[in-house]
Amino acid sequence: MSDLSKAKKKELSKAWQEAQCRGYLLTEENVQELFEYLEEQLDNTGCDHTLHHTERWLKNNISQDMIQKAITEITDMGGYCDCEVLLNCYEDYDIG
């Protein structure tokens, strides 16, 4: 494994600090509820490689004017389908 250059370390540190300061559209409670809902739905039906269940949950639980922003937030984290929301967004939302 190669050592990181000083510039690369600085870049990674800056990205990490920005992520720590970032505010998310969905609250921690929202995210926990969404993840529980997705786990249940995916256990029952599997993933169809869309955001079908995520979008349904958002439509039923947040204001209509925030849905597209929430979808953008989720896809920016790598949640391009329901199973990826669980796999890729968990660490970004830092639910513990």
What structural category arises from helix and sheet content?
mainly alpha
Return Rg in Å.
Answer: 16 Å
The total strand number stands at: 0
SS strand fraction: under 5%
Distance between the termini: 31 Å
Taken in chain order, the helices and strands follow as HHHHH
* Helix residue percentage: 55-70%
Q: Which sheet architecture does the biggest sheet show?
A: none
Shape: globular
How many helices in DSSP terms?
5
How would you describe what is shown here?
- By secondary structure, the protein is mostly helical.
- The chain has one domain (26-93).
- Helix content is 69%, strand content 0%.
- It has five helices and no strands.
- It has helices at residues 6-21, 28-45, 52-61, 67-76, 82-93.
- The longest helix is centred in the middle third of the chain and has 18 residues, at 28-45.
- It is globular and about 45 Å long.
Topology record:
Layout: H1 6-21, H2 28-45, H3 52-61, H4 67-76, H5 82-93
Helix pairs in contact: 2-3, 2-5
Task: Give a quick precis of the structure.
This protein is an all-alpha fold.
Defining traits:
single chain, 96 residues, mainly alpha, 5 helices
